[in-house]
Each structure stands twice: as structure tokens, then as C-alpha cells.
Amino acid sequence: MNDIDAWVWWLVGAAGLGIPLVITAMPEFGMFAVGALAAAGVAGLGFGVVVQVLAFVIVSVALIAVVRPIATRHSTQRPQLRTGVDALKGKQALVLERVDGSGGRIKLAGEVWSARSLDNGRAYEVGQEVDVVEIEGATAIVI
Any transmembrane segments, and where (predicted)? Predict the structure, then answer.
């Protein structure tokens, strides 16, 4: 196998590693594909098989060692900006109609919501401020 054939084979290997990347969504295959591209570049510059394999291994391992922990950390982080009903939890609301275990109305984030008390034996009168602990459908659960 001459030098031109070597870089072509490395490109074929990179494309071959790209297929399972797309099918399985495992980023490690992409990192190996980048290693194969690096080996193709080294082969294109005329270096021998040993240097090509070393380039493949070094680039692939470096990417897995550096990129994978960063990607894992980002995938396990909670979003800093809460949106939707998650943003309403913990907010204060104003009671518009008496709220007890069976229902009532509150003003939450500028909108009128149906609400009920978390504790069925507890009631909140008009004008009181309550805290939203949960949203169930279109009903705010308050304390």
C-alpha cells in the first residue's frame, strides 16, 4: 500500500466510523472518526504507518479524555433559566377568591389561576399572599 492509498483508506475508515455515530448517537465514534482524519492527514504528508497509527490513537484518546467529560458535565447540568410551570414554583401569589382544599382563585405572575390549598384543612382569605409549591394542570397548589 503506497502513501496515497493509505490516506484514502484512513478517509474510508473515518466515513465508516461516521455511520455508527449517526445510527447510535454515540459521540465516541465521532472522536474516532476525527482521529482517522488526523491519520489521513499524516499519511498525506508522507509519514509511515507507525506514525499514522500513533496520530490516530493520540487524537482519538485526547478527544475522548477532554471532550467526553465536558459533554457529560453539560448533559447532567440543570438549566439555569427555569421556564413554563417550573418558573412559577416558589413564586408568591395574591388570593382573589377564598382558597381551600376544594379550590379558589389566585393572581399569579399577572394571570388569574385556579388554586387549591396543599393542606385540605387550611384556607386562605382574599388579600392574603400565598406561595406556589406545585402546578397540577391549570391549578396551582399553594401554602
Answer: 6-23, 53-71
Count of CA atoms in the C-beta half-sphere (13 A) of 48: 1
Percent of the chain with pLDDT over 70: 97
Q: Please tell me the class of the 85-142 domain.
A: mainly beta
Domain coordinates of the chain in residue numbers?
3-76, 85-142
Q: How far is residue 29 CA from its own chain's centroid?
A: 20
CB 19 within 8 A of CB 12: no
Backbone φ, ψ for residue 25 (5° rounding): 60, 35
Q: With contact defined as beta carbons under 8 Å apart, do 64 and 43 qualify?
A: no
Instruction: Give pLDDT < 70 ranges for the chain.
Output: 1-4
Q: What is the mean pLDDT of the chain?
A: 91
Q: What is the pTM for the complete model shown? A: 0.55
